[in-house]
Amino acid sequence: MTTILVVDDSPTIQRTLSFMLRRMGHTALTAPNGIEALNQLETNPVDIIITDINMPEMDGLALMSAVRERPNLQHIPVVLLTDSGEWQRDGRSLDADAFLTKPVSSHQLMGKIANLAEA
Predict the structure, then answer these.
(1) pLDDT above 80 (res 93)
(2) What pLDDT, in 10s, does the model give residues 36-76?
(3) C-alpha count within 13 angstroms, C-beta hemisphere, residue 94
(4) Are 28 and 22 in contact (CB under 8 A)?
């Protein structure tokens, strides 16, 4: 199935989303911030990135920009994981392929992944 990189500084969010993704039949990788995510992307091909916006070291918007700038990564859809309304405050987030608002339900997650996997 689809390999998805979950980037969030919360181990609880990482575990929860990874569990839901695995139950849906996907492979889930995790990283605690954008820097670690970029390191993983160099060695582990992924189909979709789900990233929180607010993280230490490198936030989700900076990660998304770095992915968009690299020819070998720019094809990967980026889903921003946000707190309610947070994405509206920063115009850069409009470059995201999709948004998920915390707390994420399995139904929401399944729908976003299905839409992006088909695109």
Answers:
(1) no
(2) 999 999 999 999 999 999 899 999 999 999 999 999 999 99
(3) 5
(4) yes
Within 8 A by CB and 6+ apart from 89, the residues are none
3-class secondary-structure state, position 76: coil
What are the structure tokens assigned to 111, written together? 């729908």
Please give the Cα distance from 67 to 76 (Å, whole number).
Answer: 8
Residue type, 35: I
Distance (Å, rounded) from C-alpha 108 to C-alpha 7? 17
Q: In the Cβ-directed half-sphere of 101, how many Cα atoms lie within 13 Å? A: 6
What is the set of domains in the chain, with CATH numbers? Answer: 3-53+65-102 (3.40.50.2300)
| Three-class SS state of 20 | helix
Task: Identify the three-state secondary structure at position 50.
Answer: strand
The answer to whether residues 89 and 56 touch, using CB atoms and an 8 Å cutoff, is: no
Q: Which of 17, 107, 102, 110 is nearest to 54 (CA)?
A: 102
Report yes or no on whether pTM surpasses 0.90: yes
